[in-house]
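Quick one, T. Sequence first:
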Amino acid sequence: MNELGDQQFDPIKSKAPRDGVWATPPFMHNGSVPNLYEMLMPAAERTKKFWLGGDFDPVKVGLAASSGPPPDEAQLR
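Structure tokens:
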């Protein structure tokens, strides 16, 4: 028996904590929105492509969406 009582701990089935998941961009089920500012915009006006791995934008709360050159080790989304 472990600290979880009679349940056996299985690290493969363990889930990551969801605390603060609202503050971890990109957003939506498919990661199609880089920040909360664009989440509140109509879908037609949102950035269509953005780089993952960019800087955090505290004003728009999320990834800084830019169409410029990618930051180091970024992935196109």
